[in-house]
Specification:
CATH superfamily of the largest domain in chain B: Aldehyde ferredoxin oxidoreductase, N-terminal domain
Helix content of chain B: 25-40%
Distance between the termini of chain A: 36 Å
Structural class of chain A: alpha+beta
Strand content of chain A: 25-35%
Structural class of chain B: alpha+beta
Order of helices and strands of chain A: EEHHEEEEE
CATH architecture of chain A: Roll
Oligomer: heterodimer
Helix content of chain A: 10-25%
Number of domains of chain A: 1
Strand order of the largest sheet of chain A: 2-1-7-5-6
Number of helices of chain A: 2
Distance between the termini of chain B: 34 Å
Number of domains of chain B: 3
Shape of chain B: globular
Number of strands of chain A: 7
CATH class of the largest domain in chain B: Alpha Beta
Number of helices of chain B: 23
Chain lengths: 94, 614
């Protein structure tokens, strides 16, 4: 299945892009957010440690699936389906 | 002991008197929004026209302003709002709070009105009123430069504190703000710029060399402790993200969760918003990062558009709210046109949020055939033209200058107004972030996200994470409780005065830290609970102003938000249940009945002197 991933604020996460990073990941059926993070860590080594600590999302950071925080879904075990949009959210203020 | 020196300036008689407030008042209200609201409640006569000489402007720093590197250079303006007809407070960063305290005063009260345009200069404790006829009509940037030059300063806005109005304020637009140095900062909301304009006051310049720590008992300890807090604040992730991208990181977040208002809150999501994001603008137009005086976060992003039909001269300060209000909310997704509108709004002296609300209401009315105007969503050229006409009050601009609420009423469609208490809403749809269903519509100044900022707990999880779409009894109770707490904390920040961005992070500055700093600085013996209660007292004083005016007392949900969101990730959600059920819990927590404090509440807060208002 194909999942669209958006990493907002890439500079904050120590990635080379100023603008949002958008990519399509092709995953096995039944894949979870944990699989997405692992895949992103393969592409951007060290990325996992910027968003996950002790198997949980780091406080004040978030991952959304179709606009819903995984805190209100099934956390890192949230299962994905074809066409889902995953957004990695940095802290912010406004 | 804390000492708060205020110059009271009567522009009609040019009489200046000095007033000093000490611990007995400061421990109850601090400065900024707190002291301003307290004095406004006591002094502003009931029922006056906000644009008459009887109105007053309270321009106050606070007892910790500019004394520590903790984002404390913030200034608050309190007055009776010409937009809402009741009390408002508007707050700006920059360097004005720093320089006013250096000038020898902690605040100014402006009353009366001059016959001809004037500006005020406060230097080393001396107040002078100077003619400003030659500046009347000038845009804000040119006015600041001229005032600096005429008073012997370099034209660099860092060299003194300057507050000015543009044509919007001069022409008494009810959505005019006050521009503050340094650079394009605004005390924006509530039409405070029009109050300055009604007094024929074009600007205020403040400068001096006063020792800011002169009243501090143990200055070495104060510096050491405040430095520790600043380091902690800087270690937090929120400060880091704000520094890199500024506030406009929010476009991507809020659009992703379906709470990004599009075309006057028609819906909460737009695919086209991609080019309005902080990331895209940073890549394409940001030329420098800037800081308010003594702020370790430095979140401000300055942009330039160097070519194309929307290019402008010099740089502009841009923010999330302004990008939304003069972008997605008017159906405009061209970032260059959006930034051009922001620059224009800053130069003409508008509150960008209310300007966007008003343009959005005008387009909606035109599309419905109620207002004869050739304009469509995202029609950049026509919208730029409308902004200029609004500042000058020329033809239809005369109606737009009255703001969105009056415009919608005049053209027979109150539903085109998307706000509360007469002021339009900011850049979050309360149907997708339901904390706003309570915080927007209970906010004393109306249409406000900064009296309780729900993304702090609904997305960042501070102090605890609450599902923004949840409507179970437990979630509603939790939302009401956190909104009440946040309203006290935000009233406190505006009275200290320090930046709300220092409260977004678990490593931020909260009541415990403030009590600690006050006790060191002024030899006070206050607890965190005492300090937070100041926030509650201030919030109640503001509400008492509504009670006194007999206006906006009961909190009401704008009917538009009873309709479900038609599209986007929060499709199908409305704000009705959260408001209707949450407001009962909210009133109970506050000790209010139908939006009005009870005698017992006033007594608990030491506000018995206002019991005659009940």
């Amino acid at each position: 299945m194909r999942v669209r991933v958006v990493i907002m604020a890439p500079l904050y996460f120590g990635l080379g892009s100023v603008d949002q990073i958008k990519l399509d990941l092709y995953l096995e059926d039944g894949a979870t957010i944990r699989d997405v993070v692992n895949k992103l860590n393969d592409i951007y080594p060290g990325f996992k440690n910027k968003i996950i600590f002790q198997d949980k999302i780091i406080e004040m950071h978030d991952i959304l699936v179709n606009g819903r925080s995984i805190d209100f879904l099934d956390g890192l075990n949230t299962r994905l389906k074809d066409g889902d949009v995953v957004v990695v959210v940095s802290p912010f203020g406004g | 002991m804390a000492v708060f020196r205020v110059a009271r300036i009567d522009l009609a008689t040019e009489k200046v008197t000095e007033e000093v407030y000490k611990d007995d008042v400061l421990k109850k209200f601090l400065g900024g929004r707190g002291l301003g609201s307290y004095l406004a409640l006591k002094e502003i006569p009931k029922g006056i026209d906000p644009l008459s000489p009887s109105n007053r402007l309270y321009i106050f720093a606070g007892p910790l302003s500019a004394m520590a590197n903790l984002s404390t250079s913030r200034i608050t303006v309190v007055t009776k709002s010409p937009l809402t007809g009741s009390l408002t407070h508007a707050n700006a960063g920059g360097n004005f709070a720093y320089w006013i305290r250096k000038s020898g005063y902690d605040g100014l009260i402006i009353e009366g009105a001059a016959e001809d345009p004037v500006y005020i200069v406060v230097k080393e404790g001396d107040v002078a009123i100077k003619p400003a006829k030659h500046l009347w009509g000038k845009w804000t940037g040119a006015t600041i430069k001229a005032m600096l030059r005429e008073n012997g300063f370099p034209e660099d806005e860092k060299s003194a504190g300057v507050a000015v109005i543009g044509p919007a304020g001069e022409n008494l637009s009810r959505i005019a703000g006050i521009r503050m140095s340094d650079y394009e900062r605004f005390a924006g909301r509530g039409g405070v710029g029009a109050v300055m304009g009604s007094k024929k006051l074009k600007g205020i310049l403040v400068w001096g060399t006063r020792d800011l720590l002169r009243d501090v008992k143990d200055r070495a300890k104060f510096i050491a402790e405040s430095t520790k807090l600043a380091q902690r604040l800087m270690s937090g992730p929120t400060a880091k993200a704000l520094h890199i991208y500024g506030t406009n990181l929010l476009t991507a977040v809020i659009n992703s969760i379906g709470g990004y208002p599009i075309r006057n809150f028609e819906t909460g999501y737009a695919e086209e918003a991609d080019k309005l994001t902080g990331e895209y603008v940073k890549k394409s137009y940001v030329v420098e990062t800037h800081a308010c005086m003594m702020c370790p976060i430095a979140c401000t992003q300055h942009v330039m558009v160097r070519s194309g039909p929307f290019k402008f001269v010099g740089k502009a300060k841009y923010e999330y709210e302004s990008t939304w209000s003069l972008g997605a909310n008017i159906g405009l997704f061209d970032p260059e046109a959006d930034l051009r509108l922001q620059k224009l709004a800053n130069e003409l002296g508008f509150d960008t949020i209310s300007l966007g609300n008003t343009l959005a209401a005008a387009v909606e009315l035109a599309k419905k055939g109620k207002l004869k105007l050739d304009v469509d969503w995202g029609d950049a050229g026509a919208l730029v033209d409308l902004v200029i006409r609004t500042a000058n009050r020329s033809d239809i601009g005369d109606d737009l200058a009255e703001g969105d609420y009056r415009l919608a009423l005049k053209y027979g469609d109150p539903s085109a107004f998307r706000g509360s208490r007469g002021q339009g809403l900011p850049a979050y749809d309360p149907r997708a972030l339901k904390g706003f269903a309570l915080s927007y519509f209970t906010a004393n100044r109306g249409g406000d996200h900064l009296e309780a900022y729900s993304p702090t707990w609904e997305v960042l999880g501070v102090p605890e994470k609450v599902d923004p779409l949840c409507e179970t009894p437990e979630c509603i109770e939790k939302q009401a409780r956190i909104v009440v707490y946040a309203q006290h904390l935000m009233a406190l920040t505006d009275s200290v005065t320090y930046c709300k961005f220092a409260t977004l992070d678990r490593e931020g500055i909260f009541e415990k830290d403030l009590a600690h700093l006050f006790n060191i600085a002024y030899d006070w013996d206050v607890t965190p609970e005492d300090v937070l209660t100041i926030g509650e007292r201030v919030f109640n004083v503001e509400r008492l102003f509504h009670v006194k005016e007999g206006k906006w007392v009961k909190d009401e949900l704008n009917p538009h938000f009873r309709n479900p969101l038609p599209t986007g990730p929060a499709k199908g959600h409305s704000a009705a249940k959260m408001f209707d059920e949450g407001i009962k819990i909210y009133y109970k927590l506050r000790g209010w009945v139908d939006g009005k404090p009870t005698y017992d509440t006033l007594k608990r807060l030491g506000l018995e002197e206002f019991q005659y208002l009940l």
